[in-house]
Amino acid sequence: LKPHWPRADPKSGAVSRRGRADSGPRGDGTMPGCNCQKAIQIWSEKNENANAEEAEVVKLMCLSPPIEKMDGSLNQLVNVKHLSLSTNCIDKMIPLPALKNLEILSLGRNMIKKISGLEEVGATLRELWISYNSISTLDGLSPCTKLTTLFMSNNKIKDWTELAKLQANPDLVNVLLFGNPMYEGITKKEARPKVLEHLPNIRTLDGELLTGADDDEEEEAGE
Fold this sequence. Notes:
little secondary structure; disordered N terminus
């Protein structure tokens, strides 16, 4: 019998649980998660049976039930440049050795506790979107020698000295950090010199362009 895969809603991209052969509750009473292979098939159906191996943009986001784990089936996306796995229940990053063209990796709104597994994509990755997770350190980014953009808001970074680890990413110019515990009790403007102390070459911080105008204003006020 041909398996009946869940269908994606054409507007939201969400996938209905109805019609799944395995949609019954697990022993703990929760719904089983969607694996990456099923998610890719759902994506293909939604995109006129597109060939995943040829696609440059693949968005496996907002699935219901959600993806619980990254797995090796993602390595079939050999041509992908932008991969989105945001708004799922992923708790761990894994190496993706076949994704030799990956430039943007989106993992926002998951349950990830640390950045890892980027060694295989570090030579090409330019943007990492990983806001709204549970990450407490900035380890794991040193392989990403071409990283220009890091969206890291609403995680669990407490110590400003963690930012020094980003000095291993010389091309980094766009950073999003607000919503982390280290911002508690201060404004974005007050946080700016703390960030620049460790990352003097960034151009945008927390969605605002750094022009140097604020420094000029402060110098004039002190004269």
